[in-house]
Structure formats: structure tokens, C-alpha cells
UniProtKB/TrEMBL annotation, chains A, B:
Organism: Paenibacillus terreus
Taxonomic lineage: Bacteria, Bacillati, Bacillota, Bacilli, Bacillales
Domain FAD-binding PCMH-type, chain residue ranges per copy: 37-216
InterPro entries: FAD-bd_oxidored_4_C (IPR004113), FAD-bd_PCMH (IPR016166), FAD-bd_PCMH-like_sf (IPR036318), FAD-bd_PCMH_sub2 (IPR016169), FAD-linked_Oxase-like_C (IPR016164), FAD-linked_OxidoTrans_Type4 (IPR051914), Oxid_FAD_bind_N (IPR006094), Vanillyl_alc_oxidase_C-sub2 (IPR016171)
Residues in the signal sequence: none
Annotated Gene3D superfamilies: 3.30.465.10, 3.30.70.2740, Vanillyl-alcohol Oxidase, Chain A, domain 4
Cofactor field: FAD
PROSITE patterns: FAD_PCMH (PS51387)
Keywords: FAD, Flavoprotein, Oxidoreductase
Protein's UniProt name: FAD-binding oxidoreductase
Length: 471, 471
């Protein structure tokens, strides 16, 4: 329960209609896209301006009450669950595109704008904002920045980080800072902009972002290749990159995913394939045609069982359906779906998929794997049941071993979902004890009283690293 | 003078031949590429491994003696001058390309490798590392990372920051950390990799870097356009970008630069032109030809007085000569050349050039301006004489006003040279007092005893912002 004087102060700042502490609002904001995680906040506020955010933060800091800022809460790491109580701040009212500057190719936007709406605006102005997280129809730009969201185009175009060039943010004490600007080059001190991107709401509250835009590709082609041999698919990925082609999209689905997707979407996929690659290239027409032809030849050389190149946009959409259905198809199998994002160097994709399969077998759990093969960002996905604590325990053990395997292959515990609560016990595995200490030090500089999204990124206890016993 | 026990310990770590405290070595390492700045170190060490760097740092931290790590010292911000004494650590012996991974398109390199040598290796393997600082023939990769160097290709390809994906670094206490990896996506905690890039040796000593490579463009075309009207040139820059073309290079020289360059290189440039644009595009042949033709049309529309498109590589080299000679030509005019890098949004190029000219006139100093028009990164260059303290004072006043003008136009005090000593008094103008406090806090987390390159980035006193009186 919030101190009544503080509640009254917050009501004055945002207006009565935008302060909620009724049960319904509290429950609605007690969870996010992450399974099996819930905590009730003390209140929910909906600010409409940077000044209100600043005033809220000033009030909360004087009462030492935590703040969890959130957009749509579509994250998968427990990033917006108020695990230590406090006030949830929903950014949806700050959802305006403030400026589209076609001379400098930048957009300045408020954090609460839905990503897909933003992209729609940008594309209808003949420009291009590449980050395309799968959540984009519900996620917000602010959430994307907080988590440094990736997506299907990461391979060629990078992730959210590569497009954020300026920020306005409110600090824990309510002060407003501005970093970067409409500048392609700026080395005035440490790069606070990139530090805030991916900081998961633990360092400051982003209230405005200046994003870099680029000219859109003139055309796009889509193809699908199926492989009986997992290594054939993996060698194809490597051979494409080695032949100096960076496709816009290079997605992968393993056999368990193919089976589930086909059962769900009735696409008539061959169920004996070990892997499907979905490949897209964009750019100028001549380049795209040449690249797709080279990729087709590589697929043939690597014994692809079937190769389909879409002749029309409609056909391309049909080819995309399988990959797009993957999560939905898996999610309907059993009550609980846990989607992870262990990431490896792209040359290690096949090794990693085999390791995931071994681990799933060892713990007798169902894990299907799909994801972004081109950048090594895989989504091993467990279908399970949160009510079966014994099975959930095995799933957790399996994922622990999957993270360890990713690190052993030169990878990371999270490629695009963030640390949040879920990966916090494993952060030290990736960055080491000194790395974690540095990060904790940075957190303390920005937020000495630990008020901004407390309980995230840093775990009370680091998990002991499992010793992997192959075979 | 170094404590003799410490000196003995350093000698043991690096070997007698690689520890120097003779007068010649101390004087040689008392300055860098920055004019009018010199300070004598207490010793110079030349480590050959990360382990040696770690042992050196452990020794220095126990004696609380500062360390200044440097490559070739080609920076222009006083970044490697030992202004508070201490030990200069020269990284030239750690100059190996450790791995070129053609499957993952990464290179792992030691910091002391000369940038041009690195680029030569990469290009002869059919790959591409875009950052191309003008200093590349003498500068090191480690220096480029410390300063986040830019270059002529920044507009299209970004700067050093965009290519550093993993680091090994030694902390102030001698501990070794590793960040990132051969990963295109990694969101495991705060982005320490990008934080270290551009931190000017004040947070940690970089001992190894993993760099992202990309496929090389298949061809390149070069053109030169001359304008009687400065705004015509500026409008051309904007119109190119607005027509959705991002050239590989889009360089600018103003009239004073043209005059000096022509006098130096005898190129027969027309001396009544207000601006020359040097434009290059690279990529697939069809795209390049189409873009260059569109750019040619834009130049014509904006009343370019002459437009030359190079038909051969030799002709292209000839067109490039003017821009390449700019610094050398200016440097020979008078004893002291001060090259700055005030940067503005690219739409403000013409305004900025006019402001620079006004300011130069007001203080009766010679300032010629050239630079990277495409990303708004200008190099106003004063030719002066360090011995004439009265004139130098006027030059400093002029630059102070130039920085203020850049900020007023939405720009920054430094686009690619770094803060070092030279820009430290102005850092607060860009990032505000809270921003500077955050940066100081980060510095303290990494380096609590202020041993790593002390006296840089943060000034003892912030310069009072000048009030600009137009006209």
C-alpha cells in the first residue's frame, strides 16, 4: 500500500483519472509476457509528459518507493513485473511521433508509441526503420529500447541499439537528461545513449528517443529451402555468409517445430525434414535477383530436398506463414510455453541445435527450436505445464544446461529478450564476477536508492554453473 | 620519478629492453598529435601480452601511479599526453591479427596493430572493415577504439563503435574482463562493449578486440562538384539524402580551403568557388551507376558550376587529391594548425559554415573549413602560431564560439576526435551538469583511484558558455 500522502501527490501530478490503485488495475499490471511470474504493484500511473514523469520520480524518490516503467509488457524476461512492489508507470499516453525529419533521416518519438504504428508512419513516408521484433504489433518503441529488441532483420540491419542516436530520459531523482542528438557522429564523453538502450528500465526512464532512419530497399524476394540433414542446413547458412551475401532474413525451424507448425497451419510441410530455412533478401532489384540465385545454388549444393522461390508477394506471404506460425503453434500444444533466446556465433548453429535436442532428451522435456539462424539467435521453446512442478523443474534444469552450452560455444545467455528476472541468475556466467560488479556499480551511479525497476538484471544469488557431460 | 621498487617490478614484468625512463623516451612520449600540449611521463613500458598489461596495472595500482595507454598518439584532443605524469604504456608490440573468422565475419585483433595494416589484411581476404580515419596509416586499432574514430565513410557505414562487438580489457586493479563476443545479438546486461569504445583510455585498457566485418562493395564511383553558392552545395547534400541515397563519402571544402589546396597541389581549381563536394558511392554496379547519375542531376539542379565524374580509378584518385591534401596544405601555411571537429545535423552544414566564417572574421583569425558534409562532421581548421599568445587567445575564443554555435544548431562539441584535454572544459555544454556527473560516477566505478589516463574527459573547471551575438 502506498503512503496516502504520496498517493495524493501522484494524483495531483497525473490527474485522478490517470492514477489507479483499484484491484483490477493492480492485477492487470502484476504480470507481463513472461510465464509463471506475477507480483502486485502498489499503484499504476499513466503520465502524459516528460514533466509528469519527472514529478512522479521526484515524489517516489523522496518516499523511496520503486518505479517500474512499462509499455505493453510483451517482454519475455519478467522485465516489467513489479517484483519488489512500487508504482507501475504505463507509458501508453506518451505515444506521439514528435517529428519526422526527412532532411536528417531521423524520427523523434515518445516511448509509448506502438512499434508497428511507428513503422507504418515511417514506411508511408518512404523511409525505413529496420528493427522488427516479433512483438511489434503490441510492443512499444520505449519497450524495444529498454530491451534492445532484435528481430528477423537483425542479421543485415542490426538491432534497436543501432538506430537509437539520441534520448531524453528522467533520472531516479527526477532530473531530465538529454543524450546524443540528430548526429551520426558524437563522441562527447561516454556513450550514455547506448548505455541506456537495453538497460531494462533500471538506469533511467526513457521519455523521448531520436531514431536513425535509412532509405528503404527497393525490392524483396523470399525463398524456402528444406533439408533432410541438419548440418546441410547449417552449412548452407555458413556458405551464404562466406559467399559475401548478408540476407535480410535467414530463419530456421527444426523438425519438432515443423511438425507442430504443420499440424497447426495445415501447410502440407514434409514431416521428415530436419530443418527449414526461410531466406529473404532485399535491396536493388539486380542485387536481390543475383543474391537469391546464388543462395539457391548453395542450397542445391548442400542437398536441399526442396527449394521454393516466391514469384509473387502473395506466394512469399505463404512461405512466411510457417515461420510466423511457429510460436502460436507451439503455444497451443500445452498450457505453458517458455521461449528462450540462447545465442551462439552463427557458425555454431547446428552444434547448438543438436545440443538442445540432447538436453531435451536427457531431461525428458519437449523443446522445439526455431529462430534467427543468420545471427545465431535461436529460440529453443519448451511446451510444458506450470502446474506440474516436477516437470517445470526439469524444464528449468534443461534451460540451465542450454545456457551453459551456448556459452561453451562462444555464445550468450540472451540475444534479444534481456536479463530481467529470468536470466539474472545466469548473468555472471556470461560476463564474469567483475563484469557484474561493474554493472552493479553503474546501476548505483544512476540509481543509488535502487528505485528503478529493482530486482532486475542482478540476482540475489548466481546459479552455480552446471558441468556439462556430453553423450 | 618513479619509485625505484616499482620501476624494478615493471622491469621484471616487461623485461629490461621494454622499460624506458631515459630522457629521450620520456620526451618522445610527452606529446601526441595535439598542438601546444606537452607533459613528461615518469616512464614508458612496452608490454607484449594481456598478462603483462594486467601485471603492470596491478603494480601501478598498488603504488597509485597513473597509466596512460597509447598507440601511435595521432589523436587531436590531447588524449595521450600524460598531463598528471605516470607511466605511458605503448601498445605497439601487441599488434597481431589473432584471427580472421570468415564463417562469422569477424576479426580478432590486438590493439597495437596499425589500422591500415589491419584493413589491408581484411581487404586481401575479400572482406571489408569500413572505419577509415584519416590517420589510419599511423593510428592503431586500439587508438581508434579508444577514441571511437570516424572517417570519410561514417555517413553510410557508421564509425568504429558500430564494428566493435567484443573486447578483452584490463581494469584499473589489473583484473581482466571480456565483453560481448562473435555475436550479432547480445543483451546480457549493460553494454560494456559500447561503453568502453570511445572512453579514451579512462575506464579500462583494451587488450583485444573482436570486430565485425562485412562483405565489400563490388564497385565504387567518384565525382566532384563545384559550387559558386555555399547554400547550393548544402542544398545538394540535403537533396541527395532526401532522395534516399546514402553515398559512401560526401565531403566538403570551403573557399579558403580550396585556395590553400590549389596553391599547394597546383590542381588548377577555380578559386572563385564557394564550395567543392567530393562524392563517392559504392555497392553493386547497377546501383552505383544509378545513384551517381541521380546525384549528378541533383548537382545540376542546384546550379553546380562544374561536375566531374571519374571514368577510371586513376581519374578518381586525381579528384580525391584535393580533399586529401586539405590538411597538409593548411598545415604548411603557418607554424601551428588546430583542427577541430564541431559537428551538426547534416541539414545545418551551410549555416554552420557561415557561422564559422563570421566568427573567424570577428576574431580576425584564419579558419578554413572542410570535412564530412554527409554526416555534418566539419573540420574548421585554424592556421596560427603557438608562439603568438595574443593570437592564440583569439583562436581559442573563436573555437569556443564555434562549439557554442554547433550546439545551438543541435550539434556536438566533438564528432570524432574525442574530448581528451582539449574539449573537457566544454563537455558540460553538450551533456549538461547531470550528464557529466553520471559520467564521473561511471569513471569512479571503473577506476576509483583515478589512475587510468587522469585529467582527461573531465575538466577541473567548465568553461562559461559564451553568449553568441549574431551579425
Amino acid at each position: 500500500m502506498l503512503d496516502s500522502a504520496l498517493a495524493a501527490r501522484l494524483r495531483i501530478i497525473v490527474g485522478d483519472a490517470h492514477f489507479r490503485d483499484d484491484k483490477e488495475a493492480l492485477i492487470t499490471h502484476s504480470y507481463d509476457g513472461t510465464p509463471m511470474l506475477q507480483a502486485i504493484p502498489d499503484a499504476v500511473v499513466y503520465p502524459e509528459s516528460t514533466e509528469q514523469v519527472s514529478a512522479i520520480m521526484e515524489a517516489l524518490s523522496s518516499y523511496k518507493v520503486p518505479l517500474i516503467s512499462r509499455g505493453s509488457g510483451s517482454n519475455l524476461c519478467g522485465g516489467t513485473v513489479p517484483v519488489q512492489g512500487g508504482v507501475v508507470m504505463v507509458m501508453h499516453r506518451m505515444n506521439r511521433l514528435l517529428e519526422l525529419d526527412t532532411e536528417n533521416l531521423t524520427a523523434t518519438v515518445q516511448p509509448g508509441m506502438i512499434t508497428a504504428d511507428f513503422i507504418h508512419h515511417i514506411e508511408s513516408s518512404g523511409l525505413f526503420y529496420p528493427p522488427d521484433p516479433s512483438s511489434m504489433r503490441i510492443s512499444t518503441i520505449g519497450g524495444n529500447i529498454a530491451e534492445c529488441s532484435g528481430g528477423l532483420r537483425g542479421l543485415k540491419y542490426g538491432t534497436t541499439k543501432d538506430y537509437v542516436i539520441g534520448l531524453e530520459a528522467v533520472l531516479a531523482n527526477g532530473e531530465i537528461i538529454r543524450t546524443g542528438g540528430k548526429l551520426m557522429k558524437d563522441v562527447a564523453g561516454y556513450d550514455l545513449t547506448k548505455l541506456l538502450v537495453g538497460s531494462e528500465g533500471t538506469l533511467a526512464i526513457i521519455t523521448e528517443a531520436t531514431l536513425k532512419l535509412i532509405p528503404p530497399p527497393k525490392c524483396k524476394m523470399t525463398m524456402l529451402a528444406m533439408f533432410r540433414d541438419l548440418y546441410g542446413a547449417a552449412r548452407t547458412v555458413s556458405a551464404i555468409i562466406e559467399s559475401r551475401i548478408i540476407p535480410a532474413t535467414l530463419e530456421f525451424m527444426d523438425n519438432p517445430t515443423i511438425r507442430v507448425v504443420d499440424d497447426f497451419a495445415k501447410l502440407g510441410l514434409p514431416l521428415d525434414m530436419e530443418a527449414i530455412l526461410l531466406i529473404e533478401q532485399d535491396g536493388d532489384p539486380e542485387t536481390v535477383a543475383r543474391d537469391i540465385e546464388m543462395i539457391r545454388q548453395i542450397c542445391e549444393r548442400e542437398q536441399a530436398d526442396s527449394i521454393q522461390v516466391a514469384a509473387t508477394r502473395e506466394e512469399a506471404e505463404r512461405l512466411l506463414t510457417a515461420r510466423r506460425s511457429a510460436f502460436t503453434a507451439l503455444a497451443r500444444l500445452r498450457p505453458t510455453t517458455i521461449l528462450e533466446d540462447a545465442t551462439v556465433p552463427r557458425s555454431k548453429i547446428a552444434d547448438m541445435v543438436l545440443r538442445i535436442n540432447e538436453i531435451a532428451k536427457k531431461y525428458n522435456v519437449i523443446i522445439a527450436t526455431f529462430g534467427h539462424a543468420g545471427d545465431g539467435n535461436l529460440h529453443p521453446t519448451a511446451t510444458t505445464d506450470a502446474r506440474d512442478t516436477e516437470e517445470i523443474h526439469r524444464v528449468e534444469q534443461a534451460f540451465e544446461e542450454i545456457f551453459a552450452a551456448a556459452l561453451e560455444l562462444g555464445g550468450t545467455i540472451t540475444g534479444e529478450h534481456g536479463v530481467g528476472v529470468v536470466k539474472a541468475p545466469f548473468l555472471e556466467w556470461k560476463i564474469g564476477a567483475s563484469g557484474v560488479e561493474l554493472m552493479k556499480g553503474i546501476k548505483k551511479v544512476f540509481d543509488p536508492d535502487n528505485l528503478l525497476n529493482p530486482g532486475k538484471v542482478f540476482a540475489k544469488q548466481t546459479r552455480k554453473r552446471v558441468v556439462i557431460n556430453h553423450g
